[in-house]
Amino acid sequence: MSARRLDQILSRYGYCSRSEAREWIRAGRVTLDGAPAKSADEKVPLEKVRVDGEPIELPDGILALLHKPAGFVCSHDASEGPTIYDLLPARWLKRNPPVTTIGRLDKDTTGVLLVTDAGELVQRWTSPKHKVPKIYEVTLDRDLESSLIAVFASGDLLLQGEAKPCRPAKLEIIGPREARLELMEGLYHQVKRMFANQGWHVVKLHRSRFGTYELGDLKPDAWRLLPLPEKLCNP
Ligand code: URA
Fold first, then answer.
1. CA of 104, closest atom in ligand 1
2. Which DSSP symbol is given to 190?
3. pLDDT, tens digit, 9 for 90 and up, residues 21-64
4. Is 101 in the pocket of ligand 1 (CB under 6 A)?
5. What is the C-alpha to C-alpha distance for residues 69 and 82, in angstroms, rounded to an integer?
6. pLDDT at residue 233 greater than cutoff 50
């Protein structure tokens, strides 16, 4: 890994601002190969740096899966209610760039939500070009009709305000009011709008899969780190 200014390293990884770095160094909190660091503008290899005795956290970047609980918004704006960022380590938000969600879930939606500090991943996995499958478990307000399967699969369902119809989506009816829907895109409130367009109201929505990622035994509110995809280095 190439050498970088110490103050840049400390701010990139969310320890302190570049201006605070001098203070941290003066206080002896930063060491290089075991010896106290001397200067904020010194260029050093990342792996030699220790802060409060610990190596730099997640130097290659962050990709994590959060089991989003209901009642949390995917926004940095706390005026909209508790945010999913309250559930993650505070330092992840102070990184530069900070972590952000890969797509969004509504406040009342639960399930798989990915967060990353790698902008390239956000672009790649939210772009309709890449066709990342998303699976939703849906509870409706009244009994389903099998005719919906063909409507959603048709590729002709045009939602209000959209220029193009929804891509073909796979609907599986698994109970009188329970369905599983697989989407290859992520329009705003797409699941709720697709059902509303046909006269159903979604009363509960849970995302059980994003791409190949599933919750496994992860409890609501909890997160786990995922390996960064190959070739993605985001120092
Ligand atoms: N579709 C919705 O309507 N809401 C979500 O949270 C996700 C997909």
1. 6
2. H
3. 999 999 999 999 999 999 999 999 999 999 999 999 999 999 99
4. no
5. 11
6. no
Ligand 1 mean position, distance from CA 108 (Å): 9
Q: Is 116 in the pocket of ligand 1 (CB under 6 A)?
A: no
Task: Give dist(CA 213, CA 199) in Å, integer.
Answer: 31
Within the chain, where are the H helices? Answer: 6-12, 18-26, 90-94, 119-126, 147-153, 190-197
Whether 225 shows a pLDDT value over 50: the answer reads yes
Q: Which of 202, 200, 61 is nearest to 120 (CA)?
A: 61
pLDDT, tens digit, 9 for 90 and up, residues 120-174: 999 999 998 889 999 999 999 999 999 999 999 999 999 999 999 999 999 999 9
What is the C-alpha to C-alpha distance for residues 77 and 207, in angstroms, rounded to an integer?
23
- Rounded to the nearest integer, the mean pLDDT of the chain is 95
Structure tokens at 50: 């220790």
d(C-alpha 11, C-alpha 51), whole Å: 12
Q: In order of start, what are the domains of the chain with their CATH numbers?
A: 4-55 (3.10.290.10), 63-127+215-225 (3.30.70.580), 133-210 (3.30.70.1560)
Q: Is the pLDDT of residue 235 over 50?
A: no
Q: What's the token pair of residue 161? A: 């305000």
For atom 3 of ligand 1, the residue with the nearest CA is 189
At 192, list the tokens: 């709720």
CB contact at 8 A, 188 and 74:
no
